Amino acid sequence: MSIPDDAPASVRREVDSLREQIEFHNRQYHTLDRPRITDAEFDALLAKLEELETRYGLQSPDSPTQRVGSEPLPGFVEVRHEIPMLSLEKAFSEEEFVQFETRTLKRAGIEGAIEYCCEPKVDGVAVSLVYRDGVLERGATRGDGVNGEDITHNVRTIHDIPLRLEGSDLTGTRIEIRGEVFLGKQGFAALNERAREEEDRTYVNPRNTAAGAIRQLDSRNTARLPLQMYCYSLGVAEGLDLPETLFETFDLLDQWGLKTNADRQLCTGADACLEYCRRLLEKRPDLDYEIDGAVIKINRLDLQRELGQTARSPRWAIAWKFPAEEKSAKVLAVDFQVGRMGTITPVARLEPVFVGGVTVSNTSLHNMDEIERLGLCVGDTVIVRRAGDVIPQIVQVIEQGDERGEVEMPKACPACNSPVELDGDIQYRCNAGLICPAQRRQSVGHFASRTAMDIEGLGEKLIEQLVDSGTVKNVADLYRLSAEELAAFERMGPKSAENLVSAIEKSRNTSLPRFLIALGIREVGDATAAALAAHFGDLEPLMNADAEALQEVPDVGEVVARHIREFFDNSENLELITALREAGVNWPAEETGTRDSLPLAGQTFVLTGTLERLTRNEAKAKLVALGAKVAGSVSARTSCVVAGESAGSKLTKAEELEIRILNEQEFMDFLERS
Ligand code: IVH
């Protein structure tokens, strides 16, 4: 490494001046949207500064050169939050909010109205920033609230985050600031426009995009996105006199040059808070950021401290969640999709609308009865609703189109032309099975999916080509594919072909539950597959079990038992199983024993909220495999509730009934121990 030249005073002055100029232009560009110089002129200033810093060893963590991103890190470092980052209790109605405020006042022994700080609940990602002596030292994600990930390299690229706090001398202080990192609506739209043009892709919604950007190992990827941050609280605060209220804390954050949300408001009493929420809901479409509710917090910090917190959330704040968002859109067409089991589902193609945080252009109409219930024709304008992470739904026709195209179920399958038949009262089906290319494609996709054989690199487009060219007629054919053969398909290079062949090779050694899922037996998902494997231990006893024996397995009722029997009574399915075994697919026998000897036998679990590291089905499968029952609602018989992020009424009920509650981390530890 070359030793930097000693910096003469004139160079130091030039470096200071360049830093000031760059910060000034950064602010003009990123905050005020009023650039004073061209991008090229800006780049020249930055290049000059970079050169001087390198030559004279004058790099500094608060220099604007730190904002452009740097070489990728090998991995994330875990950080522990000195003060846990909690989540918020939720109210879904005015009534629930009033109950919260009555309860809180009673607990605090206060009569009469108190002050609340009301803020928009920005739909982004919670981030913690630590400044030592006023200089940004560390940025971290919330993680599970106790442990997060070090994302300092990424937060440095966000222009809303000062690298050094402004204002008074902060020597000797250590200050943690918390807030929400997000992508504004305009920033997201511009990003998508660029992505569409340059990469032929679009991002689904601002929240997920921001969450992905903040967890990049290569901070140059983060720097490309116009991330913003609104700060809303102080965590650790050493060497500092704290204000008395939250509202004054916001003033302090502003003075330090951090961004705070100007749409906050001080409200006295519950009615004023509710009025704030109603007005915020009206203003929602005009805000330049996505929100999913309001946060109402007690303003006095001494009262906050007195009220304290539960394991999950503070007792002095509540999130008022907005109802589902609705938008109108025109129905351009109704297509019919063939599912893996041959079910034919009408799907509405819509004029794209941004609703509830995502762009919706297709939505399932479920069945013909639903179309009749809605009275829907092509050309009509409908209301599309989306709440939280729920799949968007058409709720109503609001305007009939000028030229209305009536929707009719096709007589022949749109994929294979076989006759379409009514199965039961409302479901239409193509019974061609694996002769139908649509069903073949989907069964291959299902076979390769993560919870089944987990074959990485076998995407939808390739499956389509493999099936349509006749190369793969059934899933056993996958095990005969060579890298040369695969490399000949569109968008496949020799390297990805080789990777795919090794992924297929790897999938040969699997487990019985995975294999059962992969077979695609009707209504046998992760949890049932785990229960079947634990009960029968291997495939043969399962294949030979009659309906009665099958129903001894938890999770298996009369209907599922019938589907399982039908599957194993079908000679084509038996041939396929033989072919897969001959291709080398194998699994170790599962440990059996009566389920009573399993560690969680006799216990009933309820899963609620969103888990970050497991899907609901994966969590259920793990519990069932350990002998537990998984129920849908909380009652006195519930042994334990697993509460993920945004858990709602089930969690409240569990707290009331004093049932054991595990958060995600505790649940993961518990699974490991069980
Ligand atoms: S206060 C102790 N204020 O909502 C709770 N949170 O479940 C501290 N959020 O993870 C949070 N806007 O990421 C607070 N104005 C706001 C917020 C806000 C968004 C997020 C935050 C947190 C989640 C609460």
Question: Care to describe what's here?
Answer:
It is globular and about 85 Å long. Strands 12, 13, 14, 15, 16, 17 and 18 form a seven-stranded antiparallel sheet that branches. Strands 2-11-10-3-9 form a five-stranded mixed sheet. It has 24 helices and 22 strands. The protein is α+β, with helices and mostly antiparallel strands and 674 residues long. The mean pLDDT is 90. Bound molecules: 2-(butylsulfanyl)adenosine. Residues 86-88, 119, 121-122, 126, 142, 180, 232, 295, 314, 317, 319 line the site of 2-(butylsulfanyl)adenosine (IVH).
Identify the notable features of this structure and list them briefly.
674 residues, alpha+beta, 5-stranded mixed sheet, binds 2-(butylsulfanyl)adenosine
Draw up the topology in text.
Blueprint: H1 9-31, H2 39-56, E1 78-80, E2 90-91, H3 94-108, E3 115-122, E4 125-132, E5 135-141, E6 147-149, H4 152-155, E7 174-183, H5 185-199, H6 206-214, H7 219-223, E8 227-238, H8 246-255, E9 265-268, H9 270-283, E10 291-298, H10 301-307, E11 317-321, E12 325-338, E13 343-355, E14 358-364, H11 368-374, E15 381-386, E16 393-399, E17 420-423, E18 427-430, H12 437-448, H13 460-468, H14 483-487, H15 494-507, H16 512-519, H17 526-536, H18 539-544, H19 547-550, H20 558-569, H21 571-582, E19 604-608, H22 616-625, E20 629-631, E21 640-643, H23 649-656, E22 660-662, H24 664-673
Parallel strand pairs: 2-11, 19-20, 19-21, 21-22
Antiparallel strand pairs: 1-6, 3-9, 3-10, 4-5, 4-7, 7-8, 10-11, 12-13, 12-15, 13-14, 13-18, 15-16, 17-18
Bound molecules: 2-(butylsulfanyl)adenosine.
